[in-house]
Amino acid sequence: MKMLSRKATFNSHGQDSEYFLGWEEYEKNSYHEVENPSGIIQMGLAENQLSFDLLESWLKQNPDAAGFKRDGESIFRELALFQDYHGLPAFKKALVEFMSEIRGNKVSFDQNKLVLTAGATSANETLMFCLADRGEAFLLPTPYYPGFDRDLKWRTEVEIVPIQCFSSNGFQITESALEEAYLQAQKRNLRVKGVLITNPSNPLGTTTSRDELNLLVDFITAKRIHLISDEIYSGTVFDTPGFVSIMEVLMDRNYMDTEVWKRVHIVYSLSKDLGLPGFRVGAIYSNDGAVVSAATKMSSFGLVSSQTQYLLSAMLSDKKFTKNYISENHKRLNKRHQMLVSGLRNTGIDCLKSNAGLFCWVDMRHLLSSNTFEAEMELWKKILYDVRLNISPGSSCHCTEPGWFRVCFANMSEDTLNLALERIKAFVESSSSPNNNQSRNQCNKNQRRKSFTKWVFRLSFRDREASER
After folding, report:
1. Residue from 151, 230, 273, 363 carrying the catalytic annotation
2. Which residue of 11, 112, 205, 228 has the fewest CB atoms within a 10 Å radius of its CB?
3. Main-chain phi, psi angles of 238, to 5 degrees
4. pLDDT score for 93
5. Dihedrals φ, ψ of 359, to 5°?
6. Which pLDDT score is estimated for 467?
7. Is 2 a catalytic residue?
8. 187 catalytic, yes or no?
């Protein structure tokens, strides 16, 4: 007799991805400037640690909020006993106002359409439970955040079908790519329930253009499916073009009070914009009352603590603070982004032009021994074990082309980033030679078509093959 469930014993969590394996190696040999200066530097974690001093300064100036007091009187008991899964009204009001402020107040949000969740992970999974059944599918443009293989699929058993995007147009979404993904889902006998995008993109660090958003709205209208816009990086846009929320596009097209209006949903959190992943604050915003009702009930399995809500309601209600934080955080992100891009350029490595996020999409195709994903893994292992940097290989993000890597820049000090750049430069200089380059170019020509075909097949059928075994 089986003692454990299929869910507990079946390896479908995605933990064996190189994205997570790199973390494991980092934890075994973590860099520390004094205790372990030769250790692995973590560049695979999208955390924003650049503006902690602004948060700490606010806490110091507002001791009542941090001490769970109101007008000098303790409200600890009140917060300790409060357990309504609808959330504190004051916090929901402050959160939707903060969301509007990040979007330049071009759109407004109704707090009654907001569902609080324990982070964006919970928000995305909850939406899957609300919108799709086991064996149905969502389309996701590649490359996409590796954690989606866990967040969207593991417990829900919803399938992901990739929308294949390419570097030739900066990995933008096209009509032909959408239609091809939809066709592939049909060939696999999967009913498509929607499209999910991250805007700004993780891992590209780019904002989705208005043309792309209009294309997506047209597509979901024609197919009568949902659209989820994961906008957890909306407050990290530090350069032009600016951020355009899917809600702004719908309002510009006068789609209010239509069926499409009800089929578009937003995911948000404070993990990236405010740099508070440990606080586990996420949210679902939907114009569909049935989705809001169902998601609110499901949120019982992942609530945000009352103490967290109280503290953040006070912080986000301080408009002077939020205005300064947003402005200063953008400046710091821009500076750090330029530091990484220019440092890599000095070593002969380019990045995809980006304007948002906590990372860069780095082009190391010229460093591959051949144009294959096997060569990408070989290079990734050298960077992890020899250079001692943990970065995320493009294959873990389901990229269609080998040789791209996501490199984070906001989770470390400037000194640590400079050390990482020094290590990369030394590695590139030591591995570059005319003979190696000539051999590499010849291999690229011979193996390009074979490699791409093999990878598309593996992307499309990996999970099906695992279940059949």
Report:
1. 230
2. 11
3. -110, 0
4. 97
5. -160, 170
6. 33
7. no
8. no
